[in-house]
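User: Structure please.
Assistant: Input sequence and predicted structure:
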Amino acid sequence: MVKFIIESNDLFDVPEAAQMLKIGYATVYRWIASGKIIPVRMDNRTLIPISEIQRLKKEKATAMETQ
């Protein structure tokens, strides 16, 4: 089993992540279900690491540059 140490300041709930990515929270859940976002699940909470948010922002910027 792989263990990660993540600072709590580096985790965002789904509505916060959606706001940062400028998408709807339902889209975040769809992306989680499809494997596009890898969440952290603690207790009954779904949290998104800042690294995933940064990765998706970078992908979005790259896609916009190629258009």
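The chain is about 50% helix and 15% strand.
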